[in-house]
Amino acid sequence: MVKRTVHIGADHAGFELKEHLKKFLQKKGYAVKDHGAHKLVKGDDYPDYAAKVAKAVQKEGDGILVCGSAEGICIAANKFKGIRAVPVWTTETAKRSREHNDANTLCLSGGKTLKPVKGIGLSKKQAEKITLAWLKTPFSGEARHIRRIKKIARLE
Asked: Which of 10, 39, 86, 113 is a Cys-bridge partner for 14, taking CB atoms 3.0 to 4.6 Å apart?
């Protein structure tokens, strides 16, 4: 059984982790649509991939974006109406972002996978755990969270 569609994208700093997660998720039964980069290009720009994934998520599915820090690609994705992108570093914050904020785009740091940087980036195993926790956690549907999401939507 194929699970819901996951749109994925990354710049050069997230390329290696994106490729890893793409294969990992396919093995777990997810339909994965890769929006690039399709090859490692040093110096490419994360907003390009954030835009492609955000536009796809606006239509259907969930998104996963990876850049060096997770923050830049997250900022870019959140410029699109209806996108609730979150940079996540733990399984607990992954779950909360879904339960409370109905996040539809997960942003991860690929800094450690391409070139280890002290204190920046996730290991592949950490990213796998976070991604599965995020994908498997449903929105709570609680009235207070619905009210808050509606207020966010009015800001767009």
From this structure: 10
